[in-house]
Amino acid sequence: MKPAAIRRAYLREAFIAIVLARMAVRFVPPSRVFAWANRPPRRINRFAADEANWIFWAVEQMAANALCLPRALATHAMLRRRGLTSRLCLGVVRQDQALVAHAWVEIGEGGAVVDREVERFTPLARFGGAG
Fold first, then answer.
1. Torsion over CA of 102, 88, 111 and 71, rounded to 10 degrees?
2. For the chain, what is the domain count?
3. pLDDT value of residue 130
C-alpha cells in the first residue's frame, strides 16, 4: 500500500472512531464506557508497534478540537482493534482552586505515554491492558 493510501485509511478510521467516542461520552453511561475500555483485547499483536505512531498521528489530525476523553477513547479503540496493549487512564491536578481532569492512553507493557501533559496529573483510574 502506498503511504498516501495508508494515511487516508488511518484518517478515515480515526474520524469514525472519534465520532463514535463523542457519541459514547454523550449518550452512554460512564459505567458502560469504562467497562468496555477495561475489557482485554481479543488478541495480542506484539509486532504492530509501528502502527501506534500512525494511530496517534491520525487521531491528533482528526481531533484537533476534541476533548481529551473522546480522543483517548478513539485511540484506545484503534489500538485494541490491532491487538496492541493499551490502557485508558484518567487523572486530575489542582489548578488554582479547581480540579482539572485529563484522559490519556498508555501503550505497551511499560506504559509509554505520548501526551506530554500527563506528568503533572495524578492518575486516578486505569482501564484496559493485557488482562
1. -60
2. 1
3. 60
